[in-house]
Amino acid sequence: MSSFVNKAKVVFVLGGPGAGKGTQCAKIADRFRFTHLSAGELLRAERSRGPYSQYGTMIEQHMREGKIVPVEVTCSLLERAMKSSSGQRLFLIDGFPRNQDNLDGWNRRMSAKVDMQFVLFFDCHEDVCVHRCLKRGHNGGSGGGGGCIGSGRSDDNLATLRKRIQTYNENSMPIIKYFEGAGQVKKIDAAPNVEQVFTQVERTFLASGF
Ligand code: UP5
Ligand code: MG
Predict the structure, then answer these.
(1) Does the beta carbon of 152 lie inside 6 Å of ligand 1?
(2) What's this model's pTM, rounded to 2 decimal places?
(3) What number of other Cβ atoms are within 10 A of residue 167's Cβ?
(4) Ligand 1 atom, smallest distance to 160 CA
(5) What is the number of structural domains in the chain?
(6) Which domain holds residue 61?
(7) Is the distance from CB of 126 to CB of 165 less than 8 angstroms?
């Protein structure tokens, strides 16, 4: 009984590339007692270990092609990050699970260890998503001077964005539909400005008892 009570609570945060998952997760973590874990950020950190990571090259190739990294890698990074957030019981898992392989791998490894609360789905038209990522790609860098402007993300270019959108439509939407069918999705209109989106998000978390 007591181990059940102590299980970590997880919210999956899904939505297209540039829908605003990271932006809103940062605000949720500020407002509520959630720890934000972005699968994409964890993969980028693993990639940036360069020769020290056996997965770096594979991760970079997948990201550039807008493909989804095998779940063993992503799930290990997520589990390690959860374990190292000692004492934390509430986690936002941003950008995962994004295909059936991700969902199956998570269920095998994690479903007995955590309680998934709901899926927060940022619903955003793909034109808006593309526009936001391209804008970030051009001027999103923090303090990058000289010729080095932009987010620094190797996937914020039009060619890769087309592939990211395609992967999202073909692989991630069916996962969102699956959760929707199970009554586990809380849908947010991600088109308005950041504060207006957060008003909906805040209401959702409060209504869920957080
Ligand atoms: N912005 C945000 N909200 C706005 C608003 N309401 N109005 C106007 N502008 C808004 O936002 C994107 C940009 O839009 C920012 O400049 C922001 O200021 C602005 P952000 O909050 O970063 O959106 P987000 O949804 O987080 O976009 P992101 O690009 O991170 O989403 P992706 O899902 O594409 O990226 P992620 O990092 O999750 O994954 C990248 C790649 O990693 C994947 O393509 C895949 O190759 C790989 N990956 C895996 O293989 N497995 C995983 O589990 C996860 C990732
Ligand atoms: Mg993000």
Answers:
(1) no
(2) 0.95
(3) 19
(4) 44
(5) 1
(6) 2-207
(7) yes
